[in-house]
Structures are given as C-alpha cells and as structure tokens.
Amino acid sequence: MLQELAREPDDVTAQELWSRLRRGASTTGLATVYRTLALLSDAGVVDVLSHHSGEQCYRLCGEAHHHHLVCERCHRVVEVEECDLGGWVNKAAKRHGFVATEHRVEISGLCAACR
Q1: In the CATH scheme, what is the code of domain 2-109?
Q2: What residues does 58 pair with on adjacent strands?
Q3: Phi and psi (nearest 5°) for 80?
Q4: pLDDT one-digit tens code per residue, 55-96
Q5: What is the pTM assigned to this prediction?
Q6: Which of 15, 21, 27 is nearest to 1 (CA)?
Q7: Which residues on neighbouring strands pair with residue 98, listed in sequence order?
Q8: Under a CB-based contact definition with an 8 Å cutoff, are residues 41 and 48 in contact?
Q9: Which residues contact 66 (CB under 8 A, 6 or more apart)?
Q10: Would you say 92 and 55 are in contact if contact means Cβ atoms under 8 Å apart?
Q11: What is the 3-state secondary structure (H, E, C) of 28-88?
C-alpha cells in the first residue's frame, strides 16, 4: 500500500488505491485499505485531505511541517513548507482559551495549468 501511495504525485482516495492494488493482483480487501489508511494517518505517515466532496484523500508526504495547495479541477497537490502561521494560531487559540498543539492548512484553488 505504501509503495502505491509513493507512486502517486498528488493524492488518492481509498477506493482509487484499492482499485490500483487490485489491478496489481493484490487480494487486499477494501475494508483493509480503509483500516490501514486510518492507522497510517494516526501514525502521521500519510496526510488526509478533504477536497473531494464526501470522500477523504490520502497523500504520502514529507515529514517536515507543511500545508497543502489543492487544485479544485485537476486535484494537483503541492506541499508548501513555508509557514508563518504560528504566532497567529497561538494568539487565536489563547483568545478562546485553547493551547494550540498543531495546525494544518489546506488551500483550495486553481493551479496554473487549470486557470
């Protein structure tokens, strides 16, 4: 499953990943794909994106703190490592009685090819 995720330049739904595995003669069931992706997400190995309506997408990302730019049309995903949000996040959290432990940003738009 990790090898197939590593081949994907953008992201993939569980259904798409399962279909690819089946084409490669894998007997892995769809429920196993969902459970494994949930475990990988919980372990911080894959990121979960929500740009497909009603379905989560999974991406094997780098370990450094980053955010995502996601094209609404072609679903291209770009990792953005620059992050100046720490001060704003901490201030917003404090104002509401929270202590921020992490943050994730997913920015939707159109990539240069789709504009």
Answers
A1: 1.10.10.10
A2: 12, 48
A3: -115, 115
A4: 899 999 888 889 999 999 998 999 999 899 999 999 999 999
A5: 0.79
A6: 21
A7: none
A8: yes
A9: 79, 80, 81, 83
A10: no
A11: CCHHHHHHHHHHHHHCCCEEEEEEECCEEEEEECCCCCCEEEEECCCCCEEEECCCCCHHH
